[in-house]
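Hey Z.,

So I finally got round to the pyridoxal-5'-phosphate thing we talked about over coffee. Here's the setup:
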Amino acid sequence: MKNSTRVNHPPSAPLPADNHAVVAPIYQTVKFEFETVEETLRALRGERAGYFYTRSSNPTTRQLELTLARLQGREDCVVCASGVGVVAQTLLSLTKQGDHVLGFIESYGPSRQLLRRTLGKFGVTHTLLSIEDVEGIEQLLAQRATRLVLFESPTNPVNKIADIAAISRSAHAHGALAVLDNTFAGLHQHGAFDVDIYLHSLTKFASGHGDVMGGAAIANEPLIRGLRPDFTLLGGVLDPHAAYLIQRGLKTYFVRYRAQSASAQRVAEYLAEHPAVERTRYPGLPGSPEHALARAQMSDFGAIVTFDLRGGAEAGRRFAEALRLFAMTASLGATESLVMPPQMLGGRDFSAEQQRLAAIGSGTVRLSIGLEDTDDLLEDIQQALAAAAGA
Ligand SMILES: Cc1ncc(COP(=O)(O)O)c(C=O)c1O
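And the result:
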C-alpha cells in the first residue's frame, strides 16, 4: 500500500469491549459505514441501530440529545445549529399554509420576525398578544383555530412571567400545541407543566461559556419523531464538536445556573433600591408583580436582570459604556457578565400600544450576570450608575 493510500485508510485502534473512555469521544465524522448493502439499507429503514450520515444523526449529537431530554423530563430531543435555528425548524416543521400561530409581543425579537417574515411567506398567519393577557389568549384560541402557541417564560428581554399552566391548558382545550422557549429558565425548570415542546438556545446556559452555538427541541417521542425528518431536510445540523462542547458545558450547568441566579438576585435587589432606577424586573425580587407566579413555577430565577433608568436612553448609553466588567454585546447565560443598553434592545417594529406592552422603555437596560465575584459586579454597577448620572 502506498503512503497516499495509507493516510486515507489509517489503521483503527479500537477499545477493547471492557475498556471505556470516561469522556465520550467526539465522532468528528460525516459518514459511517456498514459491511454490506443489506445492513446499510436495514439501518436506513430504521430496522437496526447504527449511523449513516451526520446530518441525520451522530453518536456525539445523540448523546447530547439524550442528556437534554432527561434534564427537561421528556422522552426525546433533536438538536440543531442554533437557538433561532430550532425555533425556525420547529415552526416550519409543525405548520402548513393556512395555519394560524399565537405568539407574544414580549418575546425574543427574531422569534417574532420568524412568524411575520418567514412563516408569513408561506401563508401561515399569526397573532401577537401580551403574555399577561391570559383571558385574551383563551378567547383568541376559542375563536380561531390555532396550530400552536409559541411562548417564553421569563420573556426576553424584560423578564415577564407566563402562566404556563393556564396557557398550556387553553392551548390544549382548543387543539393547539404548547411550545415553550425555555431558554431563560433553563433545562431543569418547568418540566412538570403540560408543555408539548420545549425549545432551548444551547448557546446560553447549557454550554455556558459563550464559545459555541446550538439549539434543541425536547418533547415526548412521537413529536420528536415528527420533527426529526424536517430537521434533517432543513439541514441546520449541529456539528459533533459543538455537541461535545455543549455536553462538556452541561457538567457545570447546575453549579453555574445557581451561582449566577444568586448573584443576579443581589444585583436586582441593589438596583431596586437605587434612586436612579425607576423599575427593576427580576423574577426573584420580592414584591415585584411577577414574583408570586415566578415563585410558584421556578426554583431558580435566572441570570438576567432588566431595569429602567430614570435618565432614559442617554443614561443607558453612559451606564453601559462606563461598565468595566460587563461586555456590551448580545447573548446571555455565559460565565462573563454582559450588558445590552436601550439602543441595542429590540422592539422597534412595534405599534405604540405594543411598545407599551413590550415594556422596553427608552432607559431599559438588560444585564446577564456571569460568574465574577458579586461584590466586584456591584462595585462596577455602582460606579457606572454614578457615571450615567454625570457624577
Ligand atoms: C429566548 C431565546 N430564544 C432563542 C434565542 C436564539 O438563540 P441563538 O442565539 O442560539 O440562535 C435567544 C437568543 O438570545 C433567546 O434569548
